[in-house]
Amino acid sequence: MLVFIACYGVSILDVTNDAWLLSGEDITQHYIGWKFYRASEWTFPIGQIQGILYPQTSCIIYSDSNPLLAIFFKLFSPLLPETFQYFGISGLLSFFLVGAFAGVIARRGTESRCYCFLAAGLTSFSPYLFYRMFIHTALASQWIILAAITIWVYRPYFSSWKKKTAAWTILLVAGTLTHIYYIPMVMLFFFGFGLQDLISGKGWKEDLAAAVVSIGVDLAVLYIVGAFSVHTSMEDTGLGVYSANVNSLINPVIFSRFLPGLPYGEGQLEGFGYLGLGVLILTAGTVILAIYGVYKNRKKTAEENALPEKNGRRDTLAAGISVTIVFLLGFLLAFSPVIRCGENEVLTIQYPQFIISLLSVFRTTGRFIWCVAYFIISLGLITVGRMVKKKGAVVFLAVLLVVQAVDVWPLVQVRKELVHPESGMVTMKSEEWETLAEGKIHLTILPWSTVHGMNGLKAAYETGNFAVDHGMTINYFPIARIDYEKLAEEDGVLRQKAENREDEDTLYILDTREAGEVLGLVVYEIDGYYVGVRE
């Protein structure tokens, strides 16, 4: 929390301050998605957004507006101010929970509160957290990954079926309602949790039952929210492009004060996973301590290791194998199916088609590198806390925190600019827009691609914002999982409506003046757009 306020300030926590959200960047899409959702009537499914792809509907999941918070705040919409944004609160909450779970994980290795506090600070300076914050804010809710690791490392506490089922189900649903990419991330650690139980022979059948319940509840939640109500393929293009580079964990790109950037492939910034110099030193220290621990305990007999108070040789083996497999799976998911080292393609994994189809739903596989990165930090914090004397561990972590903060500060400086944009969306300047929009309930773009094609993404966001602010629907807004064939069909329907002169309530943006005149519209040229109305 302190890291967040020091880096971003407090002005963005003002829920009525939305100027910083209207820069035309990706967060603008997320905010406008929330505005359309808030303006929509309550229906079933409860996450349905009306008017954003009129006459089609969409779902709050696909506007990346953090559905968990969107649904919560919509419940209280009548009590909220007319302008209301929760993205600053979301960012603060993410930093707080990242630090909180990191501190809880660190406590698994030591009872030192000072050490746990420093662990929270170190983890809060994770470069990939800053890299995502206020770009894809829902994807900066990386506390979900740390929460999954927390359940695993506190496995004895979650030994009963009720506790493990409740914990994993709640976390899976929370992750799903934050961003769907957290579904496989949570399941990765759930798999590791269950695998350890399987190898140690303790409660794996209960884990299997818990998984069935968790997945069943999660599917039900997705249905209730409306994830399956969008009639388009869940698969997306770009699999193999948006992966993590083999050098991802040590590649700061241009965001380190100490280390040089390394080459990477096109699209692979989606797999940005630089650990930071402080965490790299922590990792090296962890490896050294682990080797020392193995050397120190080399003379222990199998009988000693088998004693219950020593946790047993089988439990140790189960932990080691499950951790190793989760690491390997995390790397495999992040790097594949096209593995690149620097700018060179090393290997293309020929997965079966059903795996390709599944991965295509989560095409930006590079994001799985965050699971690996946070797992590295977690194991490092536990190992140092457990194997180094309290004062030494505190001093060591304090030094690492300073090194980490100084190292990633260039990235922090760049990301701070996101909350202080120099310019926003300024395409629609003329006061004529206000005059022509009076009494209209639909903003129709014919063809739908006109604004996006002519003036780019910012302009498409701006027309959407204009529509929702004036209580109008719009037939195109750039969100995820759009059925473009359906959009083209709707163009014909909307054009027919215009030809039948059933459009007195419609404001048009057209690709040419002639297109409007053919439809019998009065056409104005405003801010580079051809704007048509029925008079």
TrEMBL record:
Residue span(s) of domain DUF6311: 1-408, 432-533
Record-linked Pfam families: DUF6311 (PF19830), DUF6311_C (PF25853)
Transmembrane segment boundaries: 84-106, 113-131, 137-154, 166-193, 208-228, 240-259, 271-295, 316-339, 367-385, 392-412
Keywords associated with the record: Membrane, Transmembrane, Transmembrane helix
Taxonomic superkingdom: Bacteria
The protein's name in its UniProt record: DUF6311 domain-containing protein
Lineage per the UniProt record: Bacteria, Bacillati, Bacillota, Clostridia, Lachnospirales
